[in-house]
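Example record for the data management plan.
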Amino acid sequence: MTQTDSSGPDFTALAHQPLVDDDEVRRVEICMMKYTVPEVEVECAAAILRNTDWPFRYVAYDNRLNPANTAKMWNKFVREATCPYVCILDSDAYAPVLRPCWLTRMMRAIDQGADVVLAAANNCGNRQQKRTVAAKDGVIETVTSPWSSFVFLFRKNLPEHFGPFDEEFYAYGPDTEFATRLKLWGGKALLCPDVLFYHVHAATHGKRSDRQAERPFARDLYRAKKAAMITAIDERVTH
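Corresponding structural encoding:
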């Protein structure tokens, strides 16, 4: 059956029109883990849907049946991503209202040769990431110290160059270890301080009863991992 009314749209042609190619439009897969605080997680999702103009695919994974192993989930997100870029965010981080939107700004930063692009937040991250007010529009900074992962953007193939996230960590630590590895191996992380997320600190998996007890484990494991990385680099240099 074909459309005979020439005065309106050609619905037959429209039905046969293919979907846009994700690589061509540089679609970003935005990934979030759901835990047990729906009122916070719903607001996180709503902020993404309201405030994102860049093409994206949104994945909300119900992680309630799993332990809070963030590295395993991040690696799963990357393996299963259908888009050329991946953005992982905490379920208690709210995207700001910006024009151009927050993701457009971060994608502009990744075009400046960044391997990872970070956002700022009101109460989370290293000294560069933690802000009380957003920076001037368009400001981009090179990140000089290990960073926090509440919102970070990268190409899907990033682990092919720098390895996957380290699953020996539990909930805390894989972001710090990866940030250190990225820097030691010659990678580049950029910060968009004009993208200021509102972060409800420890509102989701941070409510775990074992949270404080885990910190010494994550700290000691990170120190051991960092020492091993530096030793390996020194050995390659001397040989």
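Summary line stored alongside the record: DSSP finds eight helices and eight strands in the chain.
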